[in-house]
Structures are given as structure tokens and as C-alpha cells.
Amino acid sequence: MLRGIIALLSLAALIPVSASAQDYVGEQRTVLSTGARALVDSCLAYANANNLKVGIAVVDPYGNLLDYHTMEGTNVIAGESAILKAKTAVRWWRSTADLNQRVQNWDNVAPVWAGDFPQRGGVPIVMDGIVIGAMGIGGGGGDACAVQAIETVLGATTLLPE
What we know:
Mean pLDDT: 85
Order of helices and strands: HHEEHHHEEH
Number of helices: 6
Structural class: alpha+beta
CATH architecture: 2-Layer Sandwich
Strand content: 15-25%
Strand order of the largest sheet: 2-1-4-3
Distance between the termini: 60 Å
Number of strands: 4
């Protein structure tokens, strides 16, 4: 019994005592719900100015839906596809237009069999080289509405550095 206690104490001495919770937890930048709302509002202004009828979705870097809006006059798929495009863009860290091209060229068909939606309209939100969320646009206009909103509201980009 005494040997067991000595063995446990010996092992405990090998565990670093300087480690803290901060040593095991990272910091992930993320678009906040207030930012998501501002992105949606900016995209709505762009859509109205360009006579588009769209569905808009914003997700955080984990794919959680933060904000969502469909304009009157859209069909149900505009809203549903906006969510799918945003989630696909954040999962793959690239635009869904780029993914679509890769699928069509047979460079990478994984987005199809993984159940993603590689159709134009989804873009990641990249700030300081980190994906902090994504926007999806369904119903028309492609990426332009999202790109304009991301650049205007956050001063961010939709492209990761090469």
C-alpha cells in the first residue's frame, strides 16, 4: 500500500504545475449577432438598390445560424439555400462558387457527397486571415450582395491569404 502511494506521488511530481486553463483554451474570433444583423441590413440595402429578391443567412465560424432574412417575393428555396450556402462556405473556408467550380472540374467532389451545397452565393467572412463566419445568399445576385456587405460593415474580406 505504501509503495502505491509513493508511486502516485512520484507521478504527480511529473505533472507540470504551471499549466492553467488558458494553456488549453484557444481564442476564436467570431462575428457577433449584432454584426450579423448589420451584415443582413447592408445586404438588404444592396438587394433593394439592385432590384434583387434574396434570402440572406449569416453563420458563425462553427456554422451556427446567427441571423436570417428572406425578402417578400422570394420562394422558399431562396431562404433555405442561403442557410445551406453559408454553412458550406464556413465549413470549407472558401466561396461556394469556387467549390462549385472544383466539383464541376472533378477536382474535389467531397462537398457533394458530404451533403453540402456548392452553388454560388456563399462566402466566408475573413478577418486578419481567420474565418470568423460566413454569409449565404439565395435567390439571385450570387456573391455580390454578401461581398459588399462584408467589406462595408466589417472591412473584412472573403478570401483567405494565399
